[in-house]
Every structure is written in C-alpha cells, then in structure tokens.
Amino acid sequence: xxxxxxxxxxxxxxxxxxxxxxxxxxxxxxxxxxxxxxxxxxxxxxxxxxxxxxxxxxxxxxxxxxxxxxxxxxxxxxxxxxxxxxxxxxxxxxxxxxxxxxxxxxxxxxxxxxxxxxxxxxxxxxxxxxxxxxxxxxxxxxxxxxxxxxxxxxxxxxxxxxxxxxxxxxxxxxxxxxxxxxxxxxxxxxxxxxxxxxxxxxxxxxxxxxxxxxxxxxxxxxxxxxxxxxxxxxxxxxxxxxxxxxxxxxxxxxxxxxxxxxxxxxxxxxxxxxxxxxxxxxxxxxxxxxxxxxxxxxxxxxxxxxxxxxxxxxxxxxxxxxxxxxxxxxxxxxxxxxxxxxxxxxxxxxxxxxxxxxxxxxxxxxxxxxxxxxxxxxxxxxxxxxxxxxxxxxxxxxxxxxxxxxxxxxxxxxxxxxxxxx
Length: 422
Description:
A hairpin with a 2-residue loop joins strand 3 and strand 4 (86-94). The chain has 2 domains: 23-134 and 162-286, Rossmann fold (3-Layer(aba) Sandwich), CATH 3.40.50; 288-370 and 381-417, no CATH class. 42% of the residues lie in helices and 22% in strands. The strands form 4 sheets. A 9-stranded mixed β-sheet has the order 4-3-2-1-5-10-11-12-14, sandwiched between helices. It has 15 helices and 15 strands. 45% of the residues are buried.
C-alpha cells in the first residue's frame, strides 16, 4: 500500500513539473528600431497592443531600441513581454550595431523560451523601409541614397530629388540599415531556430509589399503583410493585432487578412489625408507570379527585337503608370503589365495580340493568387497590392544583388527597354 502511495505522489510531482510548460498558439516578436520622428508612434502602437492583450495562449515579445544619449555608440534595447494588459520589463541589452547579431539575439530570446511550446510563429519589423533597393552613402553628403534615376516627369523627379531614401530599419542615429542579404541570413537563422517557416511576417515600414520581397522570402515566410505605398507614421493597427492573436481560431491566414481588413477604419481615422495601402501576400504563390512574368517578359523581348519602336511605347507606359511616393522607380505590377499590352497591341499581328493577352491574363491571375487581401484609399484605388522595380533611365546596381533579379528575366527586360545613355 505504501509503495502504491509513493508511486502516486511521484506521478503527481512529475505531472506538476511537466504542466509548467505553456502551450501557446502564437509566439510573436515585435522588433522595433524606430528613428526619432516615429518613436512616439511606436510607443503609441505598443500601448495599443497591450490594451487589447490579456491572453495566456499567446506569447508576445518586444525588443525596442532606445538611445541613452545622442551618441549612437550608446544604443541599447529594452525587452518586454506583454502580460495582463501591460508590458512587463525583462531586461536591457547593449546593441552591437550589427543587424544580424542584434536581430538573431532577439529571436533566440523570444523563440527559445524553454517553458513555451508554440504552434505558430510571428515576426514584425517596425521602422523605416525602402523596398528592395539598398541605399548607399553618397560621396557629397555622407547620407544614404539610391543611385540617380531621371524620372522624366515633374512629379516623379520632385519626389526623387527632395526626399531622403531610407532602407530596411534605417536609423538616423547610427546611420546603418539592414540590407537584403542580411535580412535573408536572419530569416534563415530564425526558421532554423523554430524548425519551420514563419507563419506571419509584418513589415510595418514603407514599401514592403513588393514581388521582389515576397519572392526572396518564399523559403522563410508563409504570409507577408506590408505597404505598397509609403507608410503613415501611425503604422499598423496594433490593437487589432492583439485582439486577433487572442482568438482561438486565429490562423496565420486569418491574421494576415484581418490586419488588412482592420486597416481602413484605423488609418482613415488617424491619418485621413495620407495615401494608404496594405497588402496580405501568400509568399508561396510568388514563384508562380515570377514564372508568368518571365513568359511575358520573354515574349515582349522577342517583339522588341523585331520592332524597336515598342521600347518607346513601353517607356511611355512606365511614365504614365503609378510611381511610389519617394521611390518613384517602384510601380504596380498588375497595372504596368496590363497597360503595356494595351499600348503595344496596335503594332502586333492578331496572333501576337492573342498570345500576348493570354500571357497578361496569366500574370494577372497569378497576382490575384499572391495578394490575399488588399486595402487602398480612394486616391490609390487603381493599385492591386504588389509593387515591382521599374526605373526610368538607370538600374540601381544594388538591384542586381536581389535573388529575384538573379533568378528572373525581369532585369534582362529592363536592360532592353531602359536607355542609360540618356
């Protein structure tokens, strides 16, 4: 009898020790690297998050860069866990100014909790963004900028000349930014750490909704949420993020869709005069878009080789189509492909017109599969949720380093239609 009692007691102790492991539906890391002009908005967003958050089923971690003084060498980060409608301070760490080291350290802290078993993993970057291009320091001013590209229209040129260029998580204090190669190395570390793709990644920074981003993130990310246009200072709706994460049926796809669906009322209330967009992308569909776009580009290149006059028509399309805020070399992929077909059709035979329209329809259909959900304000209602790089007179050399540029025919198409001698 005593032996049975002892076994029962040991079993109870073992059960209690095992039960301390938290079964979490989501582990979600917010990596915030705000510059001076958006710091207050980031603080507001984190406050919105915790007001909506009181779940034990979701683990939310925050790493926020702070500066003890104006000296960039004294950069630190404060780490928090969201808990009971507040941010619970965990620790302060010194930043190394190396993005790979700093971000992977945050990942190891957030996703490596020994007492948490997680079903879904989320990651959100908050800061500045410049799309796929990688600004470099200019010889004259020392500030970061992309290579000059004459837009050849007053609106585009005005944006290019007078607006500063900001890359992924550029911080004015440090003068450093995360390039695409570093981002992919970070994502590789993260997926190795968690043993799967990230279910959700948010780019709460300008110009994250690009085909080039979705394509290079295919091995690492299922759903990507980002802006096709420049982000407003207010950023994502973090209250909606916290609310949605706590729902029992919060799947990765439903979270991505909800972030876009909630953005209309949120953004129009806080920044009614800004041009707003937000897109939810299924990265697994990006490869099919690239395959369809390659077929379209190759067909156009064959046509151009027979009739060089088509180049003028294609570049007229480029000038007339959408250009993104202070990076006017980005345009709406759906719009530009569709309009190219319209402009060059009069120069083609009936058979060529039919073949080209079939290729355009395929690109359009694949874009519709890639863009799960999109929101655009009325002044951008012609957009379809995904940008592509299409400069006017010069291809930035950093673009050649992007996996998309190295794998697709798009650069060859650009080289054929862009006259860099102008």
